[in-house]
Fold this protein.
Amino acid sequence: MDPDDRIRQLEAEVASLRAFVHEHLGVPAGRAPVAASETSSRRQLLRLAGATAVGAVAAVAVADTAAATNGVTLAGSATTTTSLTQTNYTGSTGGDAFLFASTSGYDGASSFRPSLLSAKTNSAASPNGMYGLTDVANAAGVIGEASAANSVGVLGVSTASAGGVFNGVTGVSAFGSTAGVSADSLAYGVTTTGNRAALRLVSARNTPSVRGDAHVAGEIDTDSSGDLWYCHTSGTPGVWRKISGKTVAGSYHAINPGRGYDTRQLAPGNARLSTTNGPLSFTVAFGYAAGSATIIRNPLIPSGATAVTCNVTITRTIGAGFITINPYNVGTTDASTINWFGTDQTFANGITVKLGGDRQLTAVCSGSGSPSAHLIVDITGYYL
């Protein structure tokens, strides 16, 4: 081939390569080729044209490599505006549409859970598959949303540990039109633990049994008074049973019997209980040695106990009368706890009575004339 024709061919090839780079890869086309001076030798022109062609081919190769490495060449279309960049996947192959992997060995086409965007790793240097972070108020690092039936906004799965771990001022904050949190497991649906408490129920609503909304059996709720309720029959509002609260006795705890009070050792001046002396208030928090004012059990019943079971004994009676054992600071005699009908008698009776104050009771003597007796209270159990 004639050298001049060869030079023109090479220049045309360089121009074609530059146009390809500019159109497909966004690389600037650069300056127009420098015209060869008439004083240049044909060999220099051939070298210049050859070098230019090689440079253009290298630019194409490098640009193509960078495009493949950075994932620019996609089976879809890209749209860029001043506010967003959108890439639409239009492929029909199942699997992970866009896969970011920290190491080789992953095949997006055979993904266990096909996803539009997938991040996979088995590298200790990059152990986390995906991380979301925001420093903007009222925002979220990761958001999952689902609108189709039986779909899930965010799904966490683990075959060796926890499917999801949430750390924060509030670990999990959930809201749902049907259920805020729904959990299912082959073992425990929900397991909770906390340094202060494992679970806290909060409600500012009225007692469930007086509400006008529908409920189903199995619901547990609390009200604004702090009472805990269980719904055992579905309905509007359903049938509820109070299981705990400030006015509920609690569970019964039987204990080894202990002497909780004895006027013969503990009453001021060892005074008898009488109509003249008036009501007598005393605590049953401690256990005393029989026939002594020495405390041998502290406490006999714990703080917070709501009621006790006890044996009430009267002895060394005078006249005829009765004694009423009331919660602390209640001075009425609407009911009789134990009665006597003569002097120097001894009787005992077992009762259950509500506590008041700090594990305290109040005893009131009543009857015709001026009856009196010594009082002994032995505790056999408590409610808490």
Summary: The longest strand covers residues 307-318. The helical segments are 3-25, 42-69, 263-266.
